[in-house]
Amino acid sequence: MVQKTDKKLIVGVIGLGYVGLPLAVEFSKQEIPVIGYDLSVNRINQLKEHCDLSGELTSSELKKAKINYTNDPIELRSANFLIAAIPTPVNEKNKPDLSLLKEASATIGRNLSRHTTVVFESTVYPGVTEEICMPIIEQTSGLKCGEDWFIGYSPERINPGDKQHNITNIVKIVSGMDKKTLKKIARVYKIVCKAGVFESPSIKTAEMAKVFENIQRDVNIALVNELSLICHRMGMEAQEVLSAAGTKWNFLKFRPGLVGGHCVGVDPYYLVEKAKKIGYRPQIIMSAREINNYMPQFIAEEAIKAMDSVGKKKEGYKVLIMGLTFKENVRDTRNSKITVTISTLKKFGAQVYGYDPNLTQKEIEEEFEVLPVEKLERERKLGLKTLSYDAVIINVCHRQFNFVMADVINLMSSPAIVIDVTGVYKDKFKKSDNLIYKKL
Predict the structure, then answer these.
(1) pLDDT top residue among 371 and 313
(2) CA 267, chain centre distance (Å)
(3) What pLDDT is stored for residue 386 in this prediction?
(4) Pairing of strands 172-176, 197-199
(5) Which of these CATH numbers, 2.10.10.90, 3.40.50.720, 1.20.120.1460, 3.30.930.10, describes 4-161?
(6) N or C: which end of the chain has fewer CB within 10 A?
(7) Is residue 397 flagged as an active site residue?
(8) CATH among 3.40.47.10, 3.40.50.300, 3.40.50.720, 3.50.50.60 for 294-439
């Protein structure tokens, strides 16, 4: 239930994606009036029909949520606590793209009521909230920050597909332009964040903490990916090394793999950009990015080498990729690094097929530019020809992948070639003269 001090609280959530929608639903559960705003008319219409195509919230959960979904920004004027959950991607040169955040700030300014608190949740480099967003809001609203309205920052900690760690049971970082604003923001977030909040001493500290959380993970994954590359050249198994090293009490358990998604593979570039602006070139962060960016190409090269080694017909290699999303058990395809594997395979003349039970045939074809496979079969016929793959790359371990070794081997011409990116299925593939099995 709403606390006494928050009876008049009206929350407006700007951006109803992976971050904004769950937040809006949680506030709604506490009987707080919620305005859910999104630019996409399609997204608003879907949510009004209780449909979340991301798969993060069920139809039942959305039916229970009493949210005023709208794509009319004027309705935000009724809110006195605005939360902006806006994507912050990078461009083709891996430079921060703040265009969506700037547009959202302008929208907020044009529809800002006096005495409103505005909180940003986007991942940014230190200074963006106060040095970029705040001036835009002031300019478009004509209202003075600190007198007419107030600003804060509370970085999102949403992990798509993770039902264990959600808004209610994780500690939320909160920050504000001054102590009074901080206390108000903390009080509001405590309504839904039952695990509590951490009050950051400044907005910049909170911004830095968020971006560094993901950099730390990126660097650790890069370290085990580099181990994998070295072990590969030495004829050793990286995962056997990790299992042995993991017996030490303080060993950090990471595993090799592709680093995609909208956070870990993107956020480091934000701090890199800021560091360069102040005259420092971050070496470890950039080295980690280079290693992790190379891994999808390495996987494609390994598949090509394996097919060449057994004399498979070089013209028109047929390669099936199982799992196209950026990680297991989600529909999220943002920054999925398997696209690099696909493009590399195509450069070698391969014909690439895609199978992912979490995606539609249209999504597979349009987003990944591969031939979609509806389901795994022992034989697929195209006209009068029976199709068999030259290699299969298992990219992510979706829960629907309940197969045995024979199921995969029978999809391929002999000898079968399996590249198991995560190595999760190593126990399913036993040594055989009819099988070449590789993993990171």
Answers:
(1) 371
(2) 10
(3) 58
(4) parallel
(5) 3.40.50.720
(6) N
(7) no
(8) 3.40.50.720
How buried is residue 121: exposed, middle or buried, by Cβ count under 10 Å (0-12/13-18/19+)?
buried
Residues paired with residue 375 on neighbouring β-strands, in sequence order: none
Neighbouring CB atoms inside 10 A of 200's CB total 23
**pLDDT in the model for residue 316:** 80
Q: Which residue has the tokens 């996409």?
A: 40
Answer yes or no: are the C-beta atoms of 325 and 262 closer than 8 Å.
no
- Structure-block tokens of residue 375: 């389901």
> Structural domain boundaries of the chain?
4-161, 211-285, 294-439
Is the CATH number 1.10.1040 carried by domain 211-285? yes
Whether 4-161 shares its CATH topology with 294-439 is answered: yes
Instruction: Give the burial class of 102: count Cβ atoms within 10 A of its Cβ; 0-12 exposed, 13-18 middle, 19 or more buried.
Output: middle
Active-site residue (options: 145, 193, 263, 397): 263
51-110: per-residue pLDDT in tens?
Answer: 998 888 999 999 999 999 999 999 999 999 999 999 999 999 999 999 999 999 999 999
AA identity, residue 97: D
Q: How many CA atoms lie within 13 A of 103 on its CB side?
A: 12
Tokens of 331: 């529909």
